[in-house]
From TrEMBL:
The keyword ATP-binding applies. Signal peptide: none annotated. CDD domains: ABC_NrtD_SsuB_transporters. Keywords: ATP-binding, Nucleotide-binding, Transport. SMART domains: AAA. SUPFAM superfamilies: P-loop containing nucleoside triphosphate hydrolases. Belongs to the ABC transporter superfamily. This is NitT/TauT family transport system ATP-binding protein. GO terms for molecular function: ATP binding; ATP hydrolysis activity. Residues 7-236 form the ABC transporter domain. PROSITE patterns: ABC_TRANSPORTER_1, ABC_TRANSPORTER_2. The lineage of its organism: Bacteria, Pseudomonadati, Pseudomonadota, Alphaproteobacteria, Rhodobacterales.
């Protein structure tokens, strides 16, 4: 049985009108993402990765083609709170505690006090930050702040998690650990993940599907279904299969640059 697509993009185009002329940020993007997949988007700066995520989130309006999110228009999906969004910088409010930050979307959505408390506790446990509820962001390391920002995006239990280079600013050891934790979290929550990265090993390690993009105009140059098993210890990165997928991603990136 094939899972029903949660994200379906067909001939998606987006051209920004700028003072320097039109910028074709997305060109003829076709992509189906099934429920529960972990999809990474990789490509050089300016190839439209963030723009695609923002289209899914209903924050940009495509100029052509169609896009459905959980069977709805992106705008409807945004209103239905179908996704959580994690940004490159943790973006926590410094004047709120970690618990206060996670509680914020729940306050906006009008959850009851007991429900807010339950969800804050639950998501803090999910990202391994139990006990840090009353700390302020500046009291946490960069990796912990990013985990808190993931908890905030998970707090209202949306079926889709959009992550725009969430670990880009972290050192490699912290990033490795968060990658491992993210896979466990994905396994536990069964959410559909859309994840932007510049790192080939990160994309290969995390994903069930890797979307390779090329710039000017932003197109998909390859879509790779990962042959790696779901269970992924970090040393899987030394395996032949891993190296082969990484090689194919690199080739896709190179081919995209040559065409552009
Ligand atoms: N609001 C906007 N107005 C005009 N041009 C924009 C706007 N947003 C993005 N662009 C342009 O669209 C193109 C795609 O940008 P986007 O941020 O999606 O790329 P990206 O692949 O996410 O890049 P990076 O890896 O650097 O984050 C770029 O050329 C960018 O300058």
């Amino acid at each position: 049985m094939t899972a029903q697509p949660v994200i379906r993009a067909k001939d998606l185009n987006l051209t920004f009108q700028t003072n320097d002329g039109p910028v074709h940020a997305l060109k003829d993007v076709d992509l189906d993402v099934s429920k529960g997949e972990f999809v990474s988007f990789i490509g050089p700066s300016g190839c439209g990765k963030t723009t695609f995520l923002r289209c899914v989130a209903g924050l940009e309006t495509p100029t052509g083609g169609s896009l459905t999110v959980d069977g709805m228009t992106p705008d409807e999906a945004r209103k239905a709170r179908a996704y959580g969004y994690v940004f490159q910088a943790a973006g926590l409010y410094p004047w709120r505690t970690i618990g206060g930050n996670i509680r914020l979307p729940l306050e906006i959505m009008g959850y009851s006090s007991s429900e807010k408390a339950r969800r804050v506790k639950e998501t803090l446990e999910l990202v391994d930050l139990a006990g840090f509820e009353k700390k302020y962001p500046w009291q946490l390391s960069g990796g912990m702040q990013q985990r808190a920002s993931i908890a905030r995006a998970l707090s209202f239990d949306a079926p889709i998690l959009l992550m725009d280079e969430p670990f880009g600013a972290l050192d490699e050891i912290v990033r490795d650990r968060l990658n491992e934790e993210l896979l466990k979290l994905w396994d536990r929550t069964q959410k559909t993940m859309l994840f932007v990265t510049h790192s080939i090993p990160e994309a290969v390690y995390l994903s069930t599907k890797i979307v390779v993009m090329s710039p000017r105009p932003g197109r998909i140059s390859d879509v790779i279904d990962s042959p790696l098993p779901k269970e992924r210890p970090l040393d899987i990165r030394d395996s032949r299969e891993f190296i082969e997928v990484a090689h194919r991603v690199r080739e896709g990136l190179r081919a995209g640059m040559e065409v552009a």
